[in-house]
Write a structure and sequence with these properties.
There is one protein chain. By secondary structure, this protein is an all-alpha fold. The protein has helices spanning 4-26, 34-44, 61-68, 85-94, 105-123. The protein has one domain (4-47, 55-123). The chain is built from 5 helices and no strands. The longest helix has 23 residues, at 4-26. The chain is globular.
Length: 136
């Protein structure tokens, strides 16, 4: 089983390759200087600690960033915890996928939080189903 740290590292590497690809496609800055903002986020990225507190039931920032990538076109930035409620709602509105378009930002965040919580529980050994025990 792949740990959340390994998944986050893979997500980071994939994100870096997308940024590199976009730079070659657009060959410069777009009107909003978006690619530079993405690169800045990557430059600020810190390694994920292997010493994360697995006894805490609340998802970590890294887990929420990972989960947000399933519901948003661009996962939460590393500093999303510093956003005000209005900024977070606006970010979610601006980056909804087709499957989350039309949902209220609070509902999308609830989906993100639920997936991050489920992943944390799964990685900590909690299973949502009973495994059948074979008497062989």
């Amino acid at each position: 089983m792949i740990s959340i740290q390994e998944q986050y590292k893979e997500l980071y590497e994939n994100f870096q390759s997308v940024v590199d690809h976009l730079k070659t496609v657009y060959e410069g800055d777009d009107p909003d200087n978006y690619l530079d903002q993405l690169q800045c986020q990557l430059d600020k990225a810190r390694p994920v600690s292997d010493e994360s507190d697995t006894t805490n039931t609340n998802p970590t920032s890294e887990e929420l960033i990972w989960a947000s990538g399933h519901f948003l076109t661009i996962p939460f930035p590393l500093n999303f915890r510093d956003f005000s409620d209005e900024e977070l709602d606006e970010y979610i509105d601006n980056h909804c996928t087709e499957s989350t378009e039309g949902y209220e930002p609070e509902d999308v965040f609830e989906k993100i939080d639920s997936l991050a919580y489920s992943m944390r529980a799964y990685n900590n050994g909690f299973r949502f189903w009973k495994e059948e025990i074979s008497n062989d």
